[in-house]
Specification:
Helices cover about 5% and strands about 40% of the residues. It has one helix and twelve strands, in the order ββββαββββββββ. The strands form four sheets. Strands 1-2-3-4 form a four-stranded antiparallel β-sheet, with no helix packed on it. The chain has a four-stranded antiparallel β-sheet with strand order 9-10-11-12, with no helix packed on it. A two-stranded antiparallel ribbon has the order 5-8.
């Protein structure tokens, strides 16, 4: 969980890199969660809406679950009818990400990283991806 000077809190899970809660003070200083999401891990495991999650390798649909790159056709996992949506059946939203707290000059930061190996969901090549979330002391959640 990331916190800041005003008491704001951002909860991010390493399962899917999902932001599960963002509590910020209202005009009276009372914390309120401003995100849609689930109350437990089971909700995120069964999620079909990608609430707060990271998606990939490709965000959106790939028609007919295939594409051509350098003359070679790649066939992908289908998870949206005949299409691939947001990276396939086990996209980044279903991956376990490595988490590391980082120092930040204006708040707290969390780095999540993941290696999607060659052939993962049918995609070619290894892809190492990372994201850094920072909860600033002015109640902004940045990436």
């Amino acid at each position: 969980m990331l916190t800041n000077k005003s008491g704001a809190e951002a909860s991010i899970t390493n399962y899917g890199g999902a932001i599960v809660s963002l509590k910020v003070p209202d005009r009276n200083g009372k914390l309120a969660d401003v995100l849609l999401g689930y109350d437990n891990a089971g909700g995120y495991a069964a999620d079909q809406s990608y609430f707060g999650a990271l998606v990939g390798r490709y965000g959106n649909r790939i028609g007919h679950a295939q594409f051509v790159l350098d003359g070679k056709t790649y066939t992908l996992a289908k998870n949206n009818g005949d299409n691939t949506l947001h990276g396939g059946v086990k996209g980044f939203n279903k991956a376990l990400w490595a988490a590391k707290i980082l120092p930040a000059k204006d708040g707290q930061s969390l780095e999540l990283s993941h290696l999607s190996k060659d052939g993962d969901e049918g995609f070619p090549g290894n892809l190492k991806v990372s994201i850094v979330y920072t909860l600033t002391d002015t109640d902004a959640l940045k990436n």
